[in-house]
Amino acid sequence: MWLQLLIAAVFIAMVVSLAMGAGFLLRDGSSSRRLLVSLKWRIGLACLLMTLIIFGFWSGRLG
Length: 63
Known about the structure:
- This protein is mostly helical.
- It contains two helices and no strands.
- The mean pLDDT is 94.
């Protein structure tokens, strides 16, 4: 149960990071680094999400 909630929270954080990146792309100038930071967070969250899903299937909690 906790693993599923953690996976959902990480997914929601990824969607929020995606929305923030889109906002930075539309509002900021070309010299802003906030879009790059948002992309780095999204990549990190995606790796965490894949790790949690693999762990869930490996341990039998999601299968």
